[in-house]
Amino acid sequence: xxxxxxxxxxxxxxxxxxxxxxxxxxxxxxxxxxxxxxxxxxxxxxxxxxxxxxxxxxxxxxxxxxxxxxxxxxxxxxxxxxxxxxxxxxxxxxxxxxxxxxxxxxxxxxxxxxxxxxxxxxxxxxxxxxxxxxxxxxxxxxxxxxxxxxxxxxxxxxxxxxxxxxxxxxxxxxxxxxxxxxxxxxxxxxxxxxxxxxxxxxxxxxxxxxxxxxxxxxxxxxxxxxxxxxxxxxxxxxxxxxxxxxxxxxxxxxxxxxxxxxxxxxxxxxxxxxxxxxxxxxxxxxxxxxxxxxxxxxxxxxxxxxxxxxxxxxxxxxxxxxxxxxxxxxxxxxxxxxxxxxxxxxxxxxxxxxxxxxxxxxxxxxxxxxxxxxxxxxxxxxxxxxxxxxxxxxxxxxxxxxxxxxxxxxxxxxxxxxxxxxxxxxxxxxxxxxxxxxxxxxxxxxxxxxxxxxxxxxxxxxxxxxxxxxxxxxxxxxxxxxxxxxxxxxxxxxxxxxxxxxxxxxxxxxxxxxxxxxxxxxxxxxxxxxxxxxxxxxxxxxxxxxxxxxxxxxxxxxxxxxxxxxxxxxxxxxxxxxxxxxxxxxxxxxxxxxxxxxxxxxxxxxxxxxxxxxxxxxxxxxxxxxxxxxxxxxxxxxxxxxxxxxxxxxxxxxxxxxxxxxxxxxxxxxxxxxxxxxxxxxxxxxxxxxxxxxxxxxxxxxxxxxxxxxxxxxxxxxxxxxxxxxxxxxxxxxxxxxxxxxxxxxxxxxxxxxxxxxxxxxxxxxxxxxxxxxxxxxxxxxxxxxxxxxxxxxxxxxxxxxxxxxxx
Length: 808
Prior knowledge:
The chain is mainly alpha-helical. It has helices spanning 10-18, 25-29, 51-54, 72-81, 83-86, 108-118, 129-142, 145-156, 164-176, 182-189, 193-203, 207-221, 258-275, 277-287, 294-297, 305-308, 315-318, 339-342, 378-383, 393-404, 427-430, 432-447, 483-486, 490-500, 502-517, 534-555, 560-569, 571-574, 596-607, 650-673, 700-718, 727-749, 788-800, 803-806; strands at 159-161, 301-303, 353-355, 475-476, 479-480, 575-578. The chain has 34 helices and 6 strands. Strand 4 and strand 5 (479-480) form a beta hairpin. Helix 4 packs across helix 7 (129-142).
C-alpha cells in the first residue's frame, strides 16, 4: 500500500480548504439557480431529474387515464420474444431491465430503434423494423408509460426530505470525508436546492472525492485484492515485462535502514498503481471531465511515475508532478538517503497520465496492446479469470453483471435436470436448455479470445490453437463483430458496443446509487405481486427516479458528477421521515451503517486525528492495518470477503464502544492543546470552564459557554441544528453535569491522591502532537483539577457511541 503519512493535521488542512467557500460568496449571491419541483404538491422538493414527473399531476394517474388501444401484433411479439426477460407487466427481471422509466421509452421512434438494433439479445434478426415498431407501440400503451410516471411521482409524495443544511453536511462527509462548518453551510443553504449544487461542485474537486469514487467502484470490481505486498506485480509476466520489479535494482533490502525503507516504499507505490489500475482509470476519467463511457472505450491506460517504469517509460519524460519532500517526507528515513536515491521517491503517487503499453520482452516484444479501458487491464482479467474449459464465460458473465446490470444466471429456463448433457455433441449449440444462456454469454466470451487466463495478450491470427467450434461467433446482443477490422482488437469493439447499450447507463447509476445510499436497488417484483401491491409501487417509484437520473447522465455527455448530484438531491438520499406511503418507502433514506472507511474519514473530519496508536502508520480501521478492525467492522478484502456487513453484530458493537472510548480520550488533550480558534471540538470553552463555581453555586457564564459548545458538537458530530435549550442539548448537558458532579465527589474523597486531578496518560499531551518535541510543563495538557476535561471526555464518549455518529 502507498505510504500513509500522519494525518494529524489533515483535517486542519481540509478545514482551511473548505473555508474558501466564503471567498466566493459574493459571486454566488448573484447566481439565480432554479428551485425545483414539489412532486404532487407533497413534501419532496426535488431536482431536475424530476422535471418529467412534475409535469404530471396526481389527478392524472392511471385510474383516470383513458384506456389506449392495444397493438395486438406488438403484444404477440412481446409475449414471444420479450416477456421472458422483461416480465409480463414490463417490470423486468434479474436477466432483463424494467421497461418502467427505461432510458429508451421516451417516444416510439427511440424505442423502435432500440428494439430493432439490439433486441432480442439472443438474436437481433428475429425482430425487424416493423416488428420493432409494433412492439414499441405495445410497450408504450400497454404499460402506460405516462401513467406509470404519474403514479411514481405521486408515490414520492409523503417523503419529507432533510434540509439543505443537513443534506450538505451528510453529502460532504459521504463524498469527501469533510465536515463543513455550519456558517458556511447555512450561507449556501440560502440558495435552496441550487446551493446544494454549488457546494457539491466544490466537494467533488477534492482529492478525497476521487478516493471515494474508487472505493465505490472497488465494491463492484474487487481490485483491492491485489494491494498487499507484490500481489499485482507477480501476476504480470516477467518475460513480457522484465521491469515489473524495477525497484529491486535501485535499493537493496539486505540491510535494515533507509535503503531498505526506500525499496519497500517504491515496491508499495508500484504495486498499488498496478493493482488499482482499473480504479485509477475511473478516477482519471472523472477528474479530467471525460465522458464516463471511456472507462470501457479508452484506447490507453493510466500510470503514475512508479508504475510507468514497469511498462518501460521514463517518469521524467512524462512530466509527472513531484512532491515537496522537505514539507512531506515520503517515509521517515528519507532524509538519510543520498540525493541520487532520494530522486526515485520524489514523485506524487496520485498523479496519473495516459500511456499506451507495448509488450517489453519475449517473443511478442513490441506488440502494442489494444486497450479497451477496464476490460483489457491485467488485474481485471485476473480478478475474473478463465480456464481452458471455461473459455472466458466467467468474464462474459461479469461483464453483463457489472456493466449491463444483467444476471445471465437468472435468464428464465428450467435447467436443473438438463444441466448435464452427455449425448449431444455440442449441447451449448443444440440443447435448448443450454442455448438459452449460452447464446447470450458465449459471443461475448469469444470476444476475449486474445487474452489468456493470466490476462496476457496474443495475436489471434497467429495462433496455432483454433477457437473451439462449439462457441458462438464473436458479438453481443445478436450483433456479429466484423472480423476483418477487429480480429485482434475484438474487446475494443465490445467496449464500444457496451456503452451504446441503455443498460450501461442503468448499471452506472445503480452502482452510484448503492454506493452513496448504502441501499440495494430494488429488484423487479415477481408476477405473484399484483399491480396494486406495495412491492410493485415501491419498485415503480424507485425505477422511475433512477431512470430519470440515467437520462440526466446521458444528456450531460456522461458527466458522472451530474448523476451524483441528482442522487444526492433526490428523495432516496435525503429522506428524513415519511408522512404518507410509509410501506412503499420503507427503504428510503440513508441512515446506513458507515463502512469502516467512511467511519475512519468521519473521525478524522470531526476530531482532526485518526483512530490509531502513535506507533501505527495507519488507522485501526484501515483495510491493510495488521491487527486492525476493518474486517471485524464489516469491511471486505476483495478476495475472500467481497460484500460488506450492513447490520451490526456483537463484535461490531464492541468495536464501536472501543472507538468511542479511545477517541474521546485521545481527542480531549489534543483539541485543548490547539489554539481556541482552531479547535475542532471545543472552540467555545476553555479547559477549566465549569458549570458550577468552587462553592457549588451555578456559574451562569460557564453553563452558557458549555451549552453553546454542545450546540457546536451536535452540528459537528451529527449535522443537527439545535438551540442551547433544546431537548437534545438538555440531555447532553445532563451527561456533562452528571460526570462533573461524580468526578468532583471522587476527587474530594481522595484528596491525597494526586492522580485524581490528572488526565489518564493516553489522554494527556506531553509532547507536541506534530513535531514530537518535548513541551514545557506550562504547555502540557494533563491537569484537570475540577474534572472539566474528563466531563467533556464523557460527553464525547456518549456522542461517539450514538447511532447518529455511527450511521449517516
